[in-house]
């Protein structure tokens, strides 16, 4: 994303990054569409309540205000993940959050998928892969 020159352009950049139109973005900030348009034209400046509200929805408020992104305390790998996440639309971000939520859920919530007799099962972690057919004993495949 190219750095914009003024506050209103940066605010519009963040709105578009969120995949929202002015009406929906205004609602996040608790303002009218007319007010949102004035913000994006740099004819008005939002108050702290608006900025706090849109920040709760993933807007980089430091970028909007200063043109500088939040200083990174992330590793290079985390930075790549975050940059990719920021480029996603709302549906993509929801999918990533669902995936992360599923990965961090306790194993007590995990239920096996219903399988047919022909279903293949792969079990294991690093160096411990087993393949078999549901309903039969799983045989370890390894080259000796």
Automatic annotation (TrEMBL):
Q: Which CDD domains match?
A: HTH_XRE
- Signal peptide positions are none
Domain of life of the organism in this record? Bacteria
Q: What is the lineage of its organism?
A: Bacteria, Pseudomonadati, Pseudomonadota, Betaproteobacteria, Burkholderiales
Protein name as it appears in the record: Helix-turn-helix domain-containing protein
As one GO molecular function, the record gives: DNA binding
């Amino acid at each position: 994303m190219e750095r914009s020159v003024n506050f209103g352009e940066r605010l519009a950049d963040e709105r578009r990054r969120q995949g929202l139109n002015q009406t929906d973005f205004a609602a996040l900030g608790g303002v009218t569409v007319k007010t949102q348009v004035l913000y994006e034209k740099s004819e008005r400046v939002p108050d702290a309540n608006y900025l706090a509200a849109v920040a709760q929805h993933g807007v980089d408020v430091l970028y909007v205000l200063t043109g500088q992104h939040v200083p990174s305390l992330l590793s290079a790998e985390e930075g790549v993940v975050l940059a990719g996440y920021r480029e996603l639309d709302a549906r993509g971000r929801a999918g990533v959050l669902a995936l992360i939520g599923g990965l961090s859920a306790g194993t007590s919530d995990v239920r096996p998928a219903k399988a047919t007799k022909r279903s293949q099962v792969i079990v294991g972690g690093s160096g411990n892969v087993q393949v078999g057919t549901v309903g039969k004993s799983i045989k370890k495949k390894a080259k000796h």
